[in-house]
Amino acid sequence: MDLANHHHLVPNIFLFVDRKCFGDWKIGKDWIDFHDLTFVISGKARYCINGETYEVEAGDLVYVPENSTREAHTYADSPMHAYPFNFQWATPHNKVHLPFGVVTKKLITTEILDYIQEFKHVWMGKQPFYPLQARAIFELILHRLLSNYYLLSNPVMDPRIKKITTYIEEHYSSDIAISQLAETVNLHPVYLGKLFKECTGSTCKEYLNRIRINNAEMMLSSGDFTVSETAERCGFRDISYFSNMFKLLKGYPPSAVLRKTGLSLFNK
Questions:
Q1: Out of 142, 145, 146, 219, which residue is the most buried by the measure of CB atoms under 10 Å away?
Q2: What residues make up the domain containing 224?
């Protein structure tokens, strides 16, 4: 699971329904340019997505990404009750897909259902500025779904990798080599690299850079440091590499954080 792909996505929800189906409910075959995320609460339905057929039931999460062909129908003897969210990611990210399959089990929790009920209350009430509040609640739902998915995909972290991540978080400003990390847990560097990727979804270098950049953003947000000072204090010896890595991970350059704080951009 590549977590970095989802950090800066902003959902624009344009449809939400408390869908209590009648026995003849169906969605006609059509191509969609949005994302359909549906929480099945009870009953059953059959979806056909891009020519593949899926049977869904209570507790299932149905995800149909943009640029898909979709059709569906419920069953008269067990009509579906579901909460569908139709949304697009804000430009230019609409082609980024969530990591779920068309049907995923064991992701819907009581906490998520509570969030959905809160979303429903806001969406139906349409009080001033309700789209902002609704989006915030939907992002909490997405956060919990992604967290649950990550935990199911990585149920137990190897204690040696946990030791490495803790070391990186405490020493990110220092020069850190994978050979040095491997030595702390008595592993061959090549095997450590493979194990680290399996447990975290990132290479050691990617994880180190993410920790460094997250700390750099906090330092810049304080308004107390220039870009050059921040780069050096976060373990980057090359200011150009730091700036490129910051923009790659955050989507904007470090100077943009300084502009928000009102700090002078000179001597950066």
A1: 145
A2: 159-261
Give the list of residues 6+ apart from residue 130 with CB closer than 8 angstroms, or none.
Answer: 122, 123
Looking up residue 140, the CATH number of its domain turns out to be 2.60.120.280
**Domain presence at residue 197:** yes
167 in the same domain as 221? yes
CATH (domain of 250): 1.10.10.60
Radius of gyration of the chain (CA): 22
| Span 122-147, pLDDT tens digits | 999 999 999 999 999 999 999 999 98
Residue bearing the bigger pLDDT, 257 or 32: 32
266 is a domain residue: no
Residues 6+ apart with CB under 8 A from 77: 23
Same domain, 144 and 226: no
Average pLDDT over residues 225-233: 91
Among 112, 132, 153, which residue terminates a domain?
153
Parallel, antiparallel or unpaired: strands 68-74 and 44-49? antiparallel
User: Which residues pair with residue 35 across a beta bridge?
Assistant: 87
Q: Which residues contact 154 (CB under 8 A, 6 or more apart)?
A: 199, 200, 201
Convert 89-106 into a string of H (helix), E (strand) and C (coil).
ECCCCCCCCCCCCCEECC
Is pTM beyond 0.85? Reply is no
Which two structure tokens, joined as six digits, stand for 190?
């090549």
pLDDT bracket for residue 265 (50, 70, 90): very low
Please indicate, yes or no, whether residues 123 and 211 belong to a single structural domain of this protein. no
pLDDT band at 267 (very low <50, low <70, confident <90, very high): very low
Tell me, yes or no, whether 250 lies in a domain: yes
What is the pLDDT, as a whole number, of residue 262?
58
pLDDT, tens digit (0-9, with 9 covering 90-100), for 162-178: 899 999 999 999 999 99
| Domain count within the chain | 2
